[in-house]
Amino acid sequence: MPGKEGEEDLSKKIAVKTLERGSVVVRTITILLLVAFLSSTGLAADAPTDAPTDAPTDAPTLRNEMPSYLKSFQMTVNRQVRAYPESYFLSGQGDERMIALTFDDGPDGENTALLLNLLAEAEVKATFFVVGEKIQEYPELLKRIASEGHELGNHSFSHPDMRKLTNDAILERELLPTAELITDLTGLAPMIMRPPYGALRDESIEYLTEAGWSIINWSIDSFDWDTTQNSASEITEKVLQYSHPGAIVLMHTGEGREGTLEALPEIIASLREDGYQFVTVSEILEILGPGPHTI
Ligand SMILES: [Zn+2]
Fold first, then answer.
1. Which of 109, 125, 158, 255 has its Cβ near the most Cβ atoms within 10 Å?
2. What are the tens digits of pLDDT across the range 55-87?
3. From the CA of 174, how far away is ligand 1's center (Å)?
4. How far is the CA of 228 from the centre of ligand 1 (A)?
5. Are the C-beta atoms of 154 and 190 separated by less than 8 Å?
6. What interhelical angle do 232-242 and 259-273 show, nearest 10?
7. Are 291 and 95 spatial neighbours (Cβ–Cβ below 8 Å)?
8. Whole-model pTM?
9. Among all residues, which ones are annotated catalytic?
10. Which of 135, 165, 170 lies closest to 152 in space, CA to CA?
11. How far is the centre of ligand 1, averaged over its atoms, from the C-alpha of 291 (Å)?
12. What CATH number labels 71-285?
């Protein structure tokens, strides 16, 4: 049976508990106010739950100054590259003056052929993220890309927004049929992929990583896809302005668009003058060894 001392202890304990409860309420209110403040400033708009607090300041990023409608995309890829450093890439690391030009959406006819002529002339090896439907249309061009020593990557079968697909559909309906076409035509089996629009859900990144894929986005957007700013001089200026060691540059084979082809000779010459070497994505990342990845 507790004596007076026991009763005093008990009432102290109750007092402490009440105080603790009070401070929990205060803390909860503080957090709610903070969240409300951050939401009102927009800072919490894309705040990830898994954001690392110790991200190095030289972490890979998408370096362009983005128009406001692409800022949330930029925040997402900058977060994803830190969350999945083993399988999701925007650029190579280090100080070596290497740069990887990448061309999406081909093979698509005359522009791809002209682009290959230009790259051969300049002795530049690049990386082509190709689309299954286009391979069916231009199988010979796909073979030519590979035979001239460029790297191939998988850019889906039908160019959908993969955020709207299940993980199974991404793999079974988009990546694997394209991979099969690439292997049948070239004997190569690339395990690098770039999602259309650079867009993937986190859990799809995890799923594809598990399936052995490396996901390659970019650190410099040439904006050659944007008809409001894709003259040759605008493309050139953008690429040169943001160039950095390890850069992966987003460009397009661009059927019917002239800007990219016109811009390339000056981009290549200027970057060479600055001491840059042109390499493939795998070379820059050193994830698959030099050159195309074979079966
Ligand atoms: Zn694309």
1. 125
2. 445 679 999 999 999 999 999 999 999 999 999
3. 13
4. 18
5. yes
6. 30
7. no
8. 0.80
9. 104, 252
10. 135
11. 22
12. 3.20.20.370
